[in-house]
Structure formats: C-alpha cells, structure tokens
Amino acid sequence: MKLKVGLLGGGSWGTTVASLVARNAPALLWARDAATVEEINTHHSNQKYLPGITLHPDLRATHDVREVSAHVDVVVVGVPSHSFRSTLEMIREHIRPWVPVISLTKGLEAGTARRMTQIIEEVLPGHPVGVLTGPNLAREIMAGYAAASVIAMDDDIINRSLQQLFSSGLFRVYTNDDVIGCELGGVLKNVVAIAVGMGDGQGAGDNTRAAVITRGLAEITRLGVAMGGKPSTFAGLAGVGDLVATCTSAQSRNRHVGVELGKGRRIDDIVADMFMVAEGVKSAPIVMELAEHYGIDMPISREVYQVLRGEIDPRRAFRGLLRTSAGAESDAG
Predict the structure, then answer these.
(1) pLDDT at site 1
(2) Does 282 participate in catalysis according to the annotation?
(3) What are the structural domain ranges in the chain?
(4) Do the beta carbons of residue 301 and residue 291 sit within 8 Å?
(5) H helices of the chain, where?
(6) How far is CA 331 from CA 253, 280, 298, in A?
(7) In this predicted structure, what is the pLDDT of residue 275?
(8) What is the chain's alpha carbon radius of gyration, rounded to the nearest angstrom?
(9) So what's the pLDDT on residue 107?
(10) What is the overall mean pLDDT for the chain?
C-alpha cells in the first residue's frame, strides 16, 4: 500500500517536493491562497513561485487543513519559520498518532531559538520527526536538473522508507541519522550566503568568494558541533553542499539580499521587494544569540548581523572581514 502524503506550504520548495512525491505516492498540498489551490488543481502550475513549470498531474491541492492532515501517513511541512508553530497547531487536532512529520524549513524560531524539529516535538509529541535538506534549488529540480538531498531521522527504518518516498528520477536522496547537524547546516548557511552576496555586490572576485565560503563553513561547523551535530555532516550535502549552492546561485534569496546590501540598498527596502522569505535575515540575530551562548566566535555571521541592524555599512563590514588576523587554518578565527 502506498503512503498517503500531506504537504503544508505552497511556496517554491513546498510545491516542488509535493510534485516530486506525487510521482511515488498520493500527494495532497495545502496552501493558504485559494487561487493557488485552484491553479494547481486546474492548470498543474504555481506561476507565482515556479513560473513556467508544469507540476505532476497527480498532485492535488486544498486549502482545508483537516483534509491534508487527517487521513495521511506522512506530513511534510514547508512553511516559513515564523509560521511553522502556528501551522502545526492547526493540524494538531486532526493528525493521527505516530504519523511522521518532516520539516523542509531552513530557519530558527524567533524568541526561542528552536529548530523546526524541536517545535514539532513540542507541538506534536510522540510523532517521529525528521528533516529533508540539502543543495536544493527548486526551479532547477523542477526543470529536470540532477540534484541530491538528505533525509535525516533518528529511526533508521522510517528513514529508509521515506528515502524511497522522496527519491524521484534525477533527485537522489541519502539518509542520515544526524538530525541536529543536518538541520543546522540548512539554517546557518543562509547567513554566510548574505556575506558572500555582500562581496559580490561590491565586485569581489572568485578568490574572495571562495575564502568567505570556506571560512563560513568553519563557523557553521564550530557552532553546529557545539550544539550536538556531527563534524562529518557539515562536510556533506547538508553542510558544504547546501552552502556552496546558496552562496553561488543567482536563484538564492539570501545571496540576493547580500548583493543588494553590497550595492548600498537598505535591508527594509530589499525585503519589501521580495515576496519569498530570505530566512537568513530572520536567523542572523538568533545565530548570534546561539554563538554567544555556546562561546563560539563567528566573525562572518557577526558582520552580517551588524549590517542587518544598520550598525555598519556592508563595505566597512567586508573590509573588516578581510583585515581579520589569520592564524592557523584549524584555529577558531
């Protein structure tokens, strides 16, 4: 019997995963916007988030949260971090016991610094939790380009079952048991991508970009390991793989924010012009709280945080990073 899958979130990545899953199992996508639901059901498209892309014809959509959560075997959550908890609360009275809940969201909760899987455990105790993450640019995947991702859960049996559910054609899914590391890799790389974008917006060269990405990975790994992740995770798809894609792609929302900052635009104006969330903007202050709590030095993330707060301008921030004294490569700085 095929698993029935309910997916929450009609943005670019939520819709992409729903379309991939529809190749393997009955898939129902929930979106807040009734027009989006109608478009997916009638035209098999979501032009707002995936222009020019045709979705799998078997994918269905609904704006009834009960329908998408009451009679399914797996729930996948792809809403932004700021609405993650409230979305789970909406399905709490409908979801059946022991149904796995998988997060697609690469962010942290403001006010609590909770990872999304921690929020799932709080709101829906007793449900197996996991995260699907990696270097996954939605439009490329839907255009048929090869890509790889990671499904991370504590339960190996469930994890391997879901691996087959999400794998499709040129979209290859690997398993991992390091939920913390995989989740943090997806969160922390967004802040580094803003830093890389700031350099690109000021005309920095390829050597500079490579240096920021590499030292950014060192920061991500230090904090991730301090919080319980495995070092090897940050050398894999959920770590360096996702970091490179986000820091170099023109499709990256977080890199775009950095580029516009580097050109001299104000963060409020940049965000106002975007209809999709750049999670790095929201995560930066939380990342700095965590860095302070765990005693981890994160100079690149700190410069991004100060730019977003308006404390320093991007040009000064980037010059400051380049002037940072260099010790042994294995050192913390």
Answers:
(1) 52
(2) no
(3) 5-177, 187-323
(4) yes
(5) 12-21, 34-43, 65-69, 84-91, 116-123, 138-142, 156-166, 179-201, 206-226, 242-248, 253-262, 267-272, 279-294, 299-308, 314-323
(6) 31, 25, 12
(7) 81
(8) 19
(9) 95
(10) 93
pLDDT for the residue numbered 323: 57
Q: What are the φ/ψ torsions at residue 30 (nearest 5 degrees)? A: -100, 130
Whether the Cβ atoms of residue 127 and residue 100 lie closer than 8 Å to each other: yes
> Which pair of structure tokens corresponds to residue 105?
């969201």
List C-alpha distances in Å: 251 to 144, 197, 242. 16, 12, 13
Low-confidence ranges of the chain (pLDDT < 50): none
Give, in words, the CATH class of 5-177: alpha beta
The whole-number pLDDT of residue 316 equals 77
Interior angle at CA 7, CA 28 and CA 96, nearest 5? 90
Residue appearing with tokens 């994160």: 298
pLDDT digits (tens, 9 = 90+) for 6-42: 999 999 999 999 999 999 999 999 999 999 999 999 9
Residue 92: count of CB within 10 angstroms of its CB: 10
User: What fold, for 187-323?
Assistant: N-(1-d-carboxylethyl)-l-norvaline Dehydrogenase; domain 2 (1.10.1040)
pLDDT at 327: 52
Give the whole-angstrom CA distance, residue 276 versus residue 49: 8
Give the active site residue among 2, 106, 189, 263.
189
Per-residue DSSP letter, 114: -
Q: Are 310 and 258 in contact (CB under 8 A)?
A: no
Calculate the alpha carbon distances from 80 to 43, 137, 230 in Å.
25, 16, 26
Question: What is the model's pTM?
Answer: 0.93
